[in-house]
Amino acid sequence: MSNSKIKVGVVGSTGLLSGFLIKLLHAHPHITIETVVSESNPNISIDTFHPFLRGITTYKTEEFKSNRLIDDCQVVFFCKPHGKGIEQTLQLVDRSRDLKIIDLSANFRLKQASLYDEWYKFTHPFPESLVEFVYGLPELNAEEIKKANFIANPGCYPTSIILAVAPLYKNKLVHPKKDLIIDSYSGVSGAGKQLNSRNMAINVEANIITYKVTDHQHTPEIEQELTKLLNEEVIINFVPHVAPFKYGIVNTIFVKLRSKIEINEIVDLYRQFYKPHPFIRIYSPDIYPEIQYVEGTNFCDIGFSYNQRTETLIVISAIDNVIKGGVGQAIQNMNIMYGWDENIGL
Amino acid sequence: MSNSKIKVGVVGSTGLLSGFLIKLLHAHPHITIETVVSESNPNISIDTFHPFLRGITTYKTEEFKSNRLIDDCQVVFFCKPHGKGIEQTLQLVDRSRDLKIIDLSANFRLKQASLYDEWYKFTHPFPESLVEFVYGLPELNAEEIKKANFIANPGCYPTSIILAVAPLYKNKLVHPKKDLIIDSYSGVSGAGKQLNSRNMAINVEANIITYKVTDHQHTPEIEQELTKLLNEEVIINFVPHVAPFKYGIVNTIFVKLRSKIEINEIVDLYRQFYKPHPFIRIYSPDIYPEIQYVEGTNFCDIGFSYNQRTETLIVISAIDNVIKGGVGQAIQNMNIMYGWDENIGL
Amino acid sequence: MSNSKIKVGVVGSTGLLSGFLIKLLHAHPHITIETVVSESNPNISIDTFHPFLRGITTYKTEEFKSNRLIDDCQVVFFCKPHGKGIEQTLQLVDRSRDLKIIDLSANFRLKQASLYDEWYKFTHPFPESLVEFVYGLPELNAEEIKKANFIANPGCYPTSIILAVAPLYKNKLVHPKKDLIIDSYSGVSGAGKQLNSRNMAINVEANIITYKVTDHQHTPEIEQELTKLLNEEVIINFVPHVAPFKYGIVNTIFVKLRSKIEINEIVDLYRQFYKPHPFIRIYSPDIYPEIQYVEGTNFCDIGFSYNQRTETLIVISAIDNVIKGGVGQAIQNMNIMYGWDENIGL
Amino acid sequence: MSNSKIKVGVVGSTGLLSGFLIKLLHAHPHITIETVVSESNPNISIDTFHPFLRGITTYKTEEFKSNRLIDDCQVVFFCKPHGKGIEQTLQLVDRSRDLKIIDLSANFRLKQASLYDEWYKFTHPFPESLVEFVYGLPELNAEEIKKANFIANPGCYPTSIILAVAPLYKNKLVHPKKDLIIDSYSGVSGAGKQLNSRNMAINVEANIITYKVTDHQHTPEIEQELTKLLNEEVIINFVPHVAPFKYGIVNTIFVKLRSKIEINEIVDLYRQFYKPHPFIRIYSPDIYPEIQYVEGTNFCDIGFSYNQRTETLIVISAIDNVIKGGVGQAIQNMNIMYGWDENIGL
Which of B49, B245, C37, D257 has the largest CB neighbor count within 10 A? Predict the structure, then answer.
């Protein structure tokens, strides 16, 4: 690494994720934040939107100007809501293919454009652009990420679920005819800061809210990546819930294996699979990940039990949805793109 | 009581309080719900707004028609937001002074109209009506309530604070030159169901939110009632906070007494003062009320410690803000107005 | 019902469930509490253990004396921990077969004694007694309960799970070769009041704790009842978790049906099945039970979605674990045994 | 700073604070952890007690041996419970006055030994040692800390309260005859991990627990430091509560000033007072600190309102009790002792 620091921009800087991204970027030893952009709220001190940044940073939001970003930044992070900002992102892509872009939305994650119509309820305006973005799950795609300039940063649920079963799919251990069953619990930060009834404290406190039982938009993202791993079409049951805490996702995943396997073999397989990856922690059998162990970190923790009576493998995984499921993974991707240590600044 | 049941109406039936009111009224042995009214959402099944009523009640909201209420009801409960529905309430007052009205808003609590301008930021359109409504705090005003047709049901904070110190003010034990200090914590139900940023779970979870430190609109209500008790002007410091739970208020109140008093005398005084009142529980010294002991009940629990070193009496009180601080007290008032047992249906 | 009230006793009156039982029994119009018994803590005011009972009841605990219970009570509720008090319960059974006994522990729920060794880690001292106790799930066994004197009150998880799928098993709609998958979340009250690290707030707050993934002791209870319904051996995957709230259980259940069925047929089937049962609420498709709708009630709410892509029926059920999963169901059983309205006192 | 890293030891490594201390020390660029000591649990992997350290550190606990610490460490952190380990700490003090010791307990905070009898209920075995330990509140005592080898790290409540009013006391703005009133809310981590009924989730969830209303052991610590600042005896009312979250303290402090002051003057005074101190954030008037802004940081946030009607200044302060109220401040003290940037590793 040269001595001069890499200059980065953040587009969409008023939402929940961007606040945490700015905090981590600000503390990252190899970069400086050149600009934070908010179309809707330009020229406002960033700590107005993210009060925890008071006394830490003094950035003011700027208007979106593609020149400014292309001329002055080497990396641009996009934190726009799903379906927003696609054209802007592609302006940068088209005009400077050297600029690195890490997009934290779902805008470029799915490779089959029709899935946006089906699951996101919008028609993707530039379907041909989808292949240009590498799916930025570092533990599976590190080689591609190293070579990429454009990254689609994975969703929070998909990160925690794909990592939890990838070794099984990659090694063809799952029963192809029995679909995967995933029951997931997320804290309220998963929904960001926008006002809506479901995320009012009066509904969340002392409650579990089940939603989108068959139609959550992360479903095709998980299926796409598992299908790639298995090389056979994967269909899943994915049921998400909101639980009364702020950060974290816990998944309980029920897997039918092709054949009986000792639980210790499973553990060994996972430990081998994830050996080079500092952010994956594989637990010993019958010990389970908890949010309290991953909160505030970029770890994905994975634990197991094998139910002898039903011949079912139960995989439990947990992440901090904002860090490993969002801004931490984005920085991990940047680190990999620049050849830095994967955990710098994390 | 005659065998025929009293017919009641509920106006403003989509907000948080009205759901609980309808639940309690529905189970009350001496009344039947004749109509539930929603101007903004007429002709909709009530359990749409209050899903916990599914399978319990089958009411549909009606439009507001004063004739309907006057002709068919003997009691009407108003659950409109503060500043709304004043004219409608007074339509009923004017046209049928036999109809009993229990208003759960702040619309008729303050007797000095200018306080609405100052604290609620609206000009009361019918200041002359204010004296017609009895302040419905049963433990202090039972005699007036018995004779009244129009009740202003107290606010949640005021209920829990006035009851916590009334014996001291009534008996002139407080130091008149030293203002009362009240630090209060409320669950999120205090803010109802309306969308707003402060009550989003992302802000409430794992947090304390301090608000309106010097200008909460319940301040003049508390001062009005304590001034009546002391017969001397009372000014208070009242600092409210929101804490991460749904129901309940806990107050910590610091009182400077006129002269030294044994804590046991205080306890005896309170027990005597509240003897006839089934919903007040006075704790032994150095045991403190907690939300878990009052949740779901119409109790107001009161406990004490005396700090010898600072010569300060500390009073802790707790209520369920929705029950004793709202719908429970409204029913308690109705019970008293009809001469029924105070705790029927509670 | 005659005018004289039924006299009841409560044995094991210091644990979490007994406090709520005493509260409900105290308010029940057809009974009086004759005695509350605590072997370990006799002669102590009951509100010492259950402070929310202050000012409501004035019972003092008595020592366990079988004569006292047999001579003076018509119903005795046992609230002892699992594995405790079996001999005492049977003393009463043996000496007065007219005395009604409702046991809230697991001591008499399983009909095959060896399951206690396997799942509860104790050897049942009186295996022959197990058949004498009717499994008290009123919506399935009302006829037997009516005739019974000895009731084994179901566990909290089993209540909420068995009711959620009973119509499918009873009507042989489930695929016999594909095991049921149940992912369950319970509030901390499920663990009672005993000190243990897992239920310390430092571990529960802002967390999900997964435990007993393959060996929870409620597993055989669920399997026993589903096997009875299906008339074929049922094996389940049941994964319990603790979530950061006090009351309530939510289950997400994945069912493979024998053949494709329209979701509306399922809903109709359930509504028909549970028609006579006031405490079961069947939701319209794609609306899901939440704890906030059942908290403090004896309801079991059940909702559904059908995943077309995976041909999986997802059933969501919710109860208040302390009420429908404990003391409320115990009282419902008593009501049925006496021929009273099922929901008297609930 | 030389290139070689400072070697540190941690004594008492199984409690809650020590886990977070080890995490921060492990990431600190200028030090290495030489040894972690647990008398009661030697020779056990440290992540057994602090599972979030899995995959981060691989330390094993050692027995306490003073030689080992004196010979191999340059700094030793003591994280023993209050009243424990005094003799061990002093063994190190006596035998190597060059060794730096940072004690996180209350063992050496109070300078008047009799206060231990009165407030902690133990007799301090080595009262003469108390003066040797500098009270490690960096924003007030930086000069002394720089020169000190032995530091008594402040308590969590005292840190957040003393900092909140220090500028007023230092500048003699408080009314000497009117005692300070402090109402404080802490998350459950304040009580550590030891089993006790008050901190069971069944009691903490959806609740506020008031405790030690007149006799909390942090009272004399706050009074001692405010007395030093004012140069006149200070007596306070300090009422602590536990609220349902894990980390954080919020204080509401009511101050009677000697004379009327504009709120902006107050803010200026505080900003001036804390100018050199990176971890103090002074808010603009009528904006209040919240736990969500300080969680996970070493900040102490301070905000104000002035109540014109009662002539009372209300100060709100918030910290993360584990970081600024514990391990973060300990590291801040170490940084100052070594002349490093105050916020290295924080």
Answer: B245
Q: Helices (DSSP H) in chain D: which residue ranges? A: 16-27, 66-72, 86-95, 114-115, 138-147, 156-170, 201-204, 219-230, 263-273, 291-294, 328-337
Q: Note whether D245 contacts C16, CB cutoff 8 Å.
A: no
Lowest mean pLDDT among B115-124, C178-187, D1-10, D277-286: D1-10
- Strand-pair category, D31-37 with D100-103: unpaired
Whether B54 sits inside 8 A of C281 (CB atoms) is yes
Q: CA of B55 to nearest chain C CA: how many angstroms apart?
A: 7
Q: What is the ipTM of this complex?
A: 0.96
* Mean pLDDT along residues A301-316: 96
Q: Which of C289, C160, C183, C273 is nearest to C236 (CA)?
A: C183
Kindly state the percentage of chain A with pLDDT values over 70.
Answer: 99
The reported pLDDT for the residue numbered D81 is 94
- Interface mutation target, options A205, A292, A320, chain B, most CBs of B under 10 Å: A205
Region for C221 from its dihedrals, namely left if φ exceeds 0, alpha if ψ lies in -120 to 50, beta otherwise: alpha
Range A261-280 average pLDDT: 97
Spell out which chain C residues touch chain D, with contact meaning CB-CB distance below 8 angstroms: 16, 187-189, 191-193, 195-197, 199-206, 244-246
Quote the pTM value.
Answer: 0.97
Going by pLDDT thresholds of 50, 70 and 90, the confidence category of residue D46 is: very high
What the block records as the tokens of D21 is 């201390």
Q: For residue C214, list chain A residues with Cβ-Cβ distance below 8 A.
A: 305-309, 314
Instruction: Please report residues of B whose CB lies closer than 8 A to that of C296.
Output: 296
Amino acid D176: pLDDT: 78
* Active site positions of A, annotated: 156
Q: Please state, in angstroms and rounded to a whole number, the distance separating the CA atoms of residues A188 and D11.
A: 38
Distances (CA, A) of A262 to A165, A302, B312: 16, 17, 67
Instruction: Using CB atoms, list chains with 3+ pairs below 8 Å to chain A.
Output: B, C, D
Is-contact C240 A288, C-beta < 8 A?
A: no
Question: Is residue B73 among the annotated active site residues?
Answer: no
HSE (side-chain half, CA atoms, 13 Å) at B75: 22
Chains B–C, number of C-beta pairs less than 8 Å apart: 30
Which residue, among B160, B252, B255, would best test binding to D if mutated, counting the most D CBs under 10 Å from its CB?
Answer: B252
Residues of D in contact with A27 (CB under 8 A): none
Over range A289-313, report the average pLDDT. Answer: 97
What gap in Å lies between CA A326 and CA D179, rounded to an integer? 49
pLDDT digits (tens, 9 = 90+) for B202-235: 999 999 999 999 999 999 999 999 999 999 999 9
Residue of A nearest to B49 (CA): A197
